[in-house]
């Protein structure tokens, strides 16, 4: 069933062979195929903070290490910190007397500090001074090994750039050339001991001394404090940090709660999802100021008939049980649906053929020169091996178009039919039979496979009239376990 928080009793087969619920699938209106998360390309459009909704380009987000400079998370419970205001009285200087009128005329200054409404943690607990501004003025902690890490990053970026240039030179010559460098020493010009010393790793002779020198000063202070407390007095577990709290700050990894500092909030991304086969957008975010909404009309449950399980009788080996299903037409056009067996689904679909033009032909010829093997989708048939079989009637069912106003109708229309139970707007309830083989053992999973053949009206080409296409979808029904 198409529920986000409940088990997936009905799953659909993707064109790549994956079996997923309809809420996790997409539908491409250009190649008329069901796509899953592995069949689409995820493209990051922009970054934003989910708390203050500040948008920033990718270059700025990279400089800020994908974190917001104004919003913080609690280092104790990881909830979002709130900014609290307080009034601070001005301090009297020694030069001013106790009866100075200037001190009496001074007004209290508004100061701000961070507070967590969940665990009552405040920035005052770790000695962070109050700030005169509400956002943007909080002190940033500097990693003691930041300079060394930046040097290593620059060094290996240069090596990667050199390797990339060598690869391009080899591809340009159109034949394989033996590597210029045979060993790591010839490539970098350094011996193994020199490379270990530059990277800060311990050598074989002075392992313990190198490890002691490589530990950051703040981390070594924490270790010494912890060892002192361990040998001199009993440990207070309430003052010790947990493993998630330490891993939230990997640069420092504090061992005491008195060293917990606010964590800058991670940025979220606005992403577009593109079909790998036809290179068209499936979802794209809206670019309104302060908006983080997405256009999700290309999700599968807006274009593919949705199947839900109403109820079913206990499945027994060698017996036939009743199964009640509900079909829903999510489109704005009338739809004809037929029930088939999975083996009756043809290999070729009735896809939309785009009109040929000079620009399309030129683009196709240019794409042939590129290596797009990583970009191609995988086409294979889904493995829907089931222990039960649904008896499919040889009838064509008609589903009305979607009408939001008809959802408030009082009664449903009951048909005098052995298959159709009732109709209501774009919904239809069916009574089917499920047969289970006698060789199926008790307590095994009861799964039934079913295929849908439906007529879909595509309205994508605006310059042409809408066309109807015959499409297929394969389903896998979870019917619990086989009774003894």
Automatic annotation (TrEMBL):
Its main location: cytoplasm. It comes from the Eukaryota. Pfam families: Dynactin_p62. It comes from Papilio xuthus. It is found in: Cytoplasm, Cell cortex; Cytoplasm, Cytoskeleton, Microtubule organizing center, Centrosome; Cytoplasm, Cytoskeleton, Stress fiber; Cytoplasm, Myofibril. Belongs to the dynactin subunit 4 family. Keywords: Acetylation, Coiled coil, Cytoplasm, Cytoskeleton, Isopeptide bond, Phosphoprotein, Ubl conjugation. GO terms for cellular component: cell cortex; centrosome; dynactin complex; myofibril; stress fiber. InterPro entries: DCTN4. The keyword Ubl conjugation applies. Subunit of dynactin, a multiprotein complex part of a tripartite complex with dynein and a adapter, such as BICDL1, BICD2 or HOOK3. The dynactin complex is built around ACTR1A/ACTB filament and consists of an actin-related filament composed of a shoulder domain, a pointed end and a barbed end. Its length is defined by its flexible shoulder domain. The soulder is composed of 2 DCTN1 subunits, 4 DCTN2 and 2 DCTN3. The 4 DCNT2 (via N-terminus) bind the ACTR1A filament and act as molecular rulers to determine the length. The pointed end is important for binding dynein-dynactin cargo adapters. This is Dynactin subunit 4.
């Amino acid at each position: 069933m198409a529920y986000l928080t409940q088990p997936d009793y009905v799953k659909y087969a993707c064109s790549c062979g994956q079996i997923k619920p309809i809420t996790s699938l997409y539908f491409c209106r250009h190649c008329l195929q069901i796509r899953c998360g592995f069949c689409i390309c995820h493209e990051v459009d922009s970054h934003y903070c989910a708390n203050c909704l500040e948008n920033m380009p990718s270059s700025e987000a990279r400089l800020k290490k994908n974190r917001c400079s104004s919003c913080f998370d609690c280092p104790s419970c990881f909830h979002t910190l709130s900014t609290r205001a307080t009034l601070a009285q001005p301090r009297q200087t020694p030069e001013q007397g106790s009866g100075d009128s200037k001190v009496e005329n001074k007004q209290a200054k508004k100061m701000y500090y961070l507070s967590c409404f969940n665990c009552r943690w405040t920035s005052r607990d770790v000695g962070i001074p109050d700030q005169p501004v509400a956002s943007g003025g909080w002190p940033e902690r500097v990693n003691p090994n930041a300079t060394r890490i930046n040097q290593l990053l620059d060094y290996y970026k240069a090596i990667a750039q050199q390797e990339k240039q060598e690869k391009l030179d080899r591809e340009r010559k159109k034949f394989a050339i033996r590597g210029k460098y045979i060993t790591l020493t010839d490539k970098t010009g350094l011996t193994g001991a020199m490379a270990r010393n530059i990277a800060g790793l311990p050598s074989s002779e002075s392992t313990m001394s190198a490890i002691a020198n490589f530990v950051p000063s703040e981390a070594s202070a924490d270790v010494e404090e912890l060892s002192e407390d361990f040998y001199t007095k009993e440990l207070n577990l309430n003052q010790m940090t947990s493993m998630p709290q330490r891993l939230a700050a990997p640069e420092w990894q504090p061992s005491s709660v008195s060293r917990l500092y606010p964590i800058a909030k991670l940025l979220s991304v606005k992403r577009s999802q593109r079909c790998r086969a036809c290179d068209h957008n499936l979802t794209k975010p809206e670019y309104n100021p302060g908006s983080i909404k997405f256009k999700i009309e290309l999700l599968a449950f807006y274009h593919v008939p949705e199947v839900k399980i109403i109820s079913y009788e206990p499945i027994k080996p060698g017996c036939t049980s009743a199964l009640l299903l509900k079909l829903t037409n999510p489109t704005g056009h009338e739809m004809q649906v037929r029930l088939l067996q999975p083996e009756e689904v043809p290999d070729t679909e009735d896809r939309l053929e785009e009109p040929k033009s000079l620009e399309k032909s030129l683009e196709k010829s240019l794409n042939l020169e590129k290596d797009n093997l990583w970009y191609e989708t995988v086409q294979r048939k889904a493995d829907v091996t089931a222990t039960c079989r649904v008896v499919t009637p040889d009838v064509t069912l008609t589903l009305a178009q979607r009408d939001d106003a008809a959802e408030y109708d009082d009664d449903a229309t009951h048909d005098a039919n052995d298959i159709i139970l009732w109709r209501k707007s774009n919904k239809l309830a069916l009574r089917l039979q499920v047969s289970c083989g006698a060789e199926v053992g008790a307590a095994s999973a009861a799964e039934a496979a079913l295929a849908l053949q439906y007529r879909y009206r595509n309205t994508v080409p605006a310059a042409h009239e809408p066309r109807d296409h015959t499409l297929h979808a394969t389903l896998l029904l979870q019917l619990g376990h086989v009774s003894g």
